[in-house]
Design a protein that fits this description.
Number of helices: 4
Order of helices and strands: EHHEEEEEEHH
Distance between the termini: 41 Å
Number of domains: 1
Structural class: alpha+beta
Strand order of the largest sheet: 1-7-6-5-4-3-2
Largest sheet: 7 strands, antiparallel
Number of strands: 7
Strand content: 35-45%
Length: 149
């Protein structure tokens, strides 16, 4: 069973600010509650072909995986994929200007879990939706409170 979770929020900051911050994987541990660390395998900044090692905790498990950037349209879209482990996944960010000072950010996680992860797909999707909603709320808070310019 495929997992496809889409969440979005409107952030009261310009699209360049939101995309610049959210699109930099080094910032992920600050706004993603489940991401513990990110280490670059290639030189920053983010570009198609960039690779980063992520360590996360999800549903009580420690996950270590490498994301590769497969699509990048500055200030519009970023897509990263991993083919590792029982849950190969694609994560995409889309940024849409709502005005000069607000941006709609859409976060999408999709993949095709196998083995036990496949059986647990509905549980995983619900947990992802809850986590993504909290993470986007944290991102909104970080950016709107002026912690990031």
């Amino acid at each position: 069973m495929a997992v496809d979770v889409v969440t979005e929020t409107v952030i009261g900051r310009a699209v360049g600010v939101v995309a610049g911050y959210a699109g930099d994987p080094a910032n992920a541990p600050e706004w993603y509650s489940n991401i513990e660390s990110v280490q670059w395998r290639t030189e920053p900044p983010v570009a198609v072909g960039s690779r980063m090692d992520f360590v996360a905790h999800f549903l009580g498990r420690r996950l270590a995986y490498t994301y590769e950037v497969v699509e990048l349209v500055p200030d519009r879209r970023l897509v990263m994929r991993t083919a590792q482990g029982p849950f190969p996944m694609e994560t995409s960010y889309e940024w849409e200007p709502m005005s000069e000072s607000s941006t709609r950010m859409t976060l999408r996680n999709r993949g095709e879990p196998s083995g036990f992860a496949g059986v647990a797909a509905p549980l995983m999707a619900a947990a992802m939706r809850r986590a993504n909603t909290k993470d986007l709320a944290r991102l909104k808070q970080v950016l709107e409170q002026g912690q990031r310019r």
